[in-house]
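Propose amino acids for all 144 sites.
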């Protein structure tokens, strides 16, 4: 079984908007939490700071750990072809913008970033991690 560890951030602003990144994979496009995979030897906090800077142009202060989400993706459902399942561990933090300006990643897995009012997120084409992260942050009601 393959494993991928990644760190993401829930970033909101004073207007109650949520920062999201647009993930692209071939013809599949969906909004996701800004963040991504850890590099060898990198701490999750450093990874989320690096990924936010790459994907959004912002520097951030990493706040509280909101949770860790674990998921096993069967080999037949993986985006990249593999005969092995993929175990993903997604570490989710709160983060606060401390500098920089909004800009888009080039040559990466995302192609833009944008602020969305929380009430409009439900209408977006998004990955499940968005709702999972919002529940962890107390910004979306938990499922019964």
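Proposal:
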């Amino acid at each position: 079984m393959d494993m991928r560890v990644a760190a993401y951030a829930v970033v909101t602003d004073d207007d109650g908007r949520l920062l999201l990144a647009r993930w692209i994979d071939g013809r599949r496009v969906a909004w996701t939490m800004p963040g991504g995979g850890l590099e060898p030897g990198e701490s999750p906090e450093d990874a989320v700071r690096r990924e936010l800077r790459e994907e959004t142009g912002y520097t951030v202060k990493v706040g509280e750990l909101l949770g860790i989400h674990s998921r096993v993706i069967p080999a037949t459902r993986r985006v990249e072809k593999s005969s092995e399942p993929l175990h993903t561990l997604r570490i989710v933090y709160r983060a606060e913008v401390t500098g920089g300006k909004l800009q888009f990643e080039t040559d990466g897995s995302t192609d833009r970033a944008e602020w969305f009012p929380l009430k409009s997120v439900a209408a977006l084409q998004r990955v499940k991690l968005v709702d999972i992260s919002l529940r962890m942050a107390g910004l979306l009601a938990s499922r019964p």
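The helical segments are 44-56, 128-136. Residues 2-137 form a domain with the Nucleoside Triphosphate Pyrophosphohydrolase fold (CATH 3.90.79.10).
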